[in-house]
């Protein structure tokens, strides 16, 4: 039988040395490496007849190394024996599931090792025979013949036999002691590696927990910040409404007080004034918080909105309204796609919103009031000096698109473009806000 080559993979120097000596004794060539990574590198240029693989090793353990070796077609056929202090049916089943042919203990005897190698066909039956043999008679031995067919053994043969037996027992005792220390060292090493790995896992889990808590804290801070902004915005609107109600109530009370003090000769004038006042209240109730929605392809203050604003100004003049008319614009953020001409149009209804080519409004790219006005509307604003002389002041304000009147759906693959654009259309609006003077002139 040709000389077989073996590879011993173990991070314990003494364990490698003991197994190497036993393998050499049965006629195998032995190469050793101290890690699974080194073993994989070794197998790139070498092909041993058998691999002895330790289980607990730093970096890559024995099971992971077996899995990688068996996944490589060039090394998958090499038999692997787990060389470990672990045992039990569960461990053996797991090892064989990954591709190992069996397990040998780090305390295995030379005879047990030879039997395992014989089963793999790496040693022949002659090498299984004991090394204990009788010496042949020497020249000085006395041989007694009882007859022509029988030869008696010299009296020294028994002593030689006993010396060989004693030598084998001493070698076996030394081997047993080495195996015991090797087992203790292996178990200690495995316990150390296991504790080290558990500690590293604990540190990694602690870091992950800290990062997770940090992310949760940021999410909470952001939610609180947005909530506070929303509350402040709602409080501002509520304050404006209460102020408007108070001003209207003050106007009504003042008018009622004036009506109570007039004499009979001025009742007709009072009735006319009351009717005018009622018309003014009706106008305020109609125009304040009046909302105009517009298409995503329009400017907020286009010619269409100009006609609506002119109608509001005309009614304000008719009822004698005095105060500010604030025109607030807000731009929706639409889900848009490019057509064959490269133009941005509303995306298909079923398209996921995270696949839109553009989220926003290309007609009104920023929040500057001037970017939302048509030429005709800009000319109208430049000619409102006469309105100021009649007690009406027109202001244009823009609400940043960072805020929204209606919340948008989640920006992910589960939200379709049609649902997103419904919210965008509601946010694409112009709102009229009135701030009347307290006193009626």
Question: Can you put this structure into words, describing what you see?
Answer:
By secondary structure, the chain is α/β, with parallel strands linked by helices. It folds into 2 domains: 5-135 and 155-194, Rossmann fold (3-Layer(aba) Sandwich); 262-436. Helix content is 50%, strand content 15%. The chain is built from 11 helices and 14 strands. The chain has helices at 13-25, 36-43, 62-71, 89-98, 110-119, 156-261, 267-287, 303-319, 375-382, 385-389, 417-427, and strands at residues 5-9, 29-33, 50-53, 80-84, 102-105, 145-147, 150-151, 290-293, 323-330, 334-338, 344-346, 358-360, 392-398, 429-436. A 5-stranded parallel sheet has the order 2-1-3-4-5, sandwiched between helices. Strands 8-14-9-13 form a 4-stranded mixed sheet, with helices on both faces. Strands 11-10-12 form a 3-stranded antiparallel sheet. A hairpin with a 5-residue loop joins strand 10 (334-338) and strand 11 (344-346). Helix 2 packs parallel to helix 3 (62-71) and helix 6 packs antiparallel against helix 7. It is rod-shaped. Residues 130-154 have low confidence and may be disordered.
């Amino acid at each position: 039988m040709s000389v077989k080559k073996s590879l011993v993979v173990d991070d314990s120097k003494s364990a490698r040395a003991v197994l190497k000596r036993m393998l050499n004794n049965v006629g195998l060539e032995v190469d050793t490496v101290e890690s699974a990574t080194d073993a994989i590198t070794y197998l790139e240029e070498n092909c041993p007849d058998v691999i002895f693989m330790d289980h607990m090793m730093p970096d890559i353990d024995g099971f992971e190394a077996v899995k990688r070796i068996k996944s490589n077609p060039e090394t998958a056929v090499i038999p692997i024996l787990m060389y470990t202090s672990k045992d039990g049916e569960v461990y053996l089943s797991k090892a064989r599931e990954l591709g190992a042919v069996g397990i040998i203990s780090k305390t295995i005897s030379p005879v047990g090792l030879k039997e395992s190698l014989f089963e793999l066909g790496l040693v022949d039956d002659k090498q299984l025979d004991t090394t204990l043999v009788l010496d042949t008679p020497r020249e000085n031995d006395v041989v007694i013949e009882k007859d022509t067919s029988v030869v008696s053994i010299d009296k020294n043969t028994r002593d030689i036999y006993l010396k060989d037996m004693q030598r084998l027992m001493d070698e076996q005792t030394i081997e047993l002691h080495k195996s015991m220390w090797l087992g203790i060292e292996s178990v200690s090493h495995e316990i150390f590696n296991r504790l080290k790995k558990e500690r590293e896992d604990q540190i990694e889990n602690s870091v992950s927990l800290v990062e997770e808590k940090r992310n949760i804290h940021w999410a909470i801070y952001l939610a609180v910040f947005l909530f506070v902004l929303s509350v402040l915005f709602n409080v501002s609107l509520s304050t404006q409404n209460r102020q408007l109600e108070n001003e209207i109530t003050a106007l009504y009370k003042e008018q009622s007080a004036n009506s109570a003090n007039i004499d009979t000769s001025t009742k007709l004038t009072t009735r006319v004034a009351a009717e005018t006042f009622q018309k003014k209240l009706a106008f305020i109730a109609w125009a304040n918080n009046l909302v105009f929605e517009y298409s995503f392809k329009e400017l907020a203050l286009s010619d269409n909105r100009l006609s609506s604003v002119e109608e509001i100004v005309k009614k304000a003049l008719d009822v004698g309204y005095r105060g500010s008319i604030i025109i607030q614009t807000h731009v929706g953020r639409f889900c848009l796609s490019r057509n064959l001409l490269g133009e941005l149009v509303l995306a298909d209804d079923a398209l996921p919103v995270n696949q839109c080519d553009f989220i926003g409004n290309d007609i009104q790219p920023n929040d500057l009031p001037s970017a939302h006005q048509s030429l005709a509307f800009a000319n109208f604003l430049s000619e409102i000096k006469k309105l100021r002389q009649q007690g009406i002041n027109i202001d244009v304000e823009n609400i940043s698109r960072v805020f929204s009147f209606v919340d948008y759906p989640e920006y992910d693959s589960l939200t379709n473009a049609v649902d997103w654009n419904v919210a965008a259309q509601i946010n694409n609006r112009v709102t009229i806000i009135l701030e009347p003077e307290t006193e009626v002139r």
